[in-house]
Amino acid sequence: MSPILVRPVREQLEHDRIIRILQTKFRRRYEAGINPGAEQNAAVGTGPAVRYPDLVLLSLDRGHRLQVVVEVETGESVNHLEALAEWAHFSKLRAAFHLYVPAGMVDVARRLCDDNRIYVSEIWSYHTIGDQPRFTLVHRNREQPPQPARQPRALERDTAAQPKRDIAAQPKRDTAAQPKRDTAAQPKRDTAAQPTRRKAPSRSAKSGATVTKKPARAQKRK
Predict the structure, then answer these.
(1) Are 93 and 64 in contact (CB under 8 A)?
(2) Where are the alpha helices (DSSP H) in the chain?
(3) Of 32, 80, 126, 210, whose CB is crowded by the most CB atoms within 10 A?
(4) Taking the alpha carbons of 10, 31, 100, 45 in that order, is the dihedral positive or negative?
(5) pLDDT per position in the chain (222 positions), as tens?
(6) List of domains in the chain
């Protein structure tokens, strides 16, 4: 029960009955801890930020990680103070936050969440038929919850304290000190001393035939 709220006895009994019914419902999938009335059996958070929601669902594996936080409200507890004192805190945990409200208070709960920017994974309504409560899913938020700011690690490397690499202080490559290739000292190719290339004989010379010039055509007699 919220420390800022004192419910009527009848509402408190109905509230605790809903919690126990939900514990039985989720026991197959989770390790369910409840805090009915003023009991403090299952807590979330540590130190001054510790809270005792109505229902705490943990995984069944060895780690027992927190999976879902459930808060059950009655007609009297769906108000602005309860939203800021309890819902806002549960919405910032690394777990899904489910809110159960009476069927007639669904619109009020939605407006309180929207006005105070409270992220709720699911909103359920409940009403009683005879002795059996009926639960109806009326809202499911498919967006990812806002993640809390990451705390700096104590042993995180301080990049600002690391000395920067001084490029100007590095020795430059001295290209002037490298010996240049002396092209003047290399001997030149003497083209005059090279033998002249002998021309290939003509086709007629290869065959051995003599070439005779044809006589000029005689001038016509007048």
Answers:
(1) no
(2) 9-26, 80-82, 88-91, 106-115, 203-207
(3) 32
(4) positive
(5) 565 567 888 999 999 999 999 999 999 999 999 999 989 999 998 888 899 999 999 999 999 999 999 999 999 999 999 999 999 999 999 999 999 999 999 999 999 999 999 999 999 999 998 889 999 999 998 765 555 554 445 444 454 445 555 555 555 565 555 555 655 555 566 555 555 566 555 554 444 544 445 555 545 454
(6) 9-140 (3.40.1350)
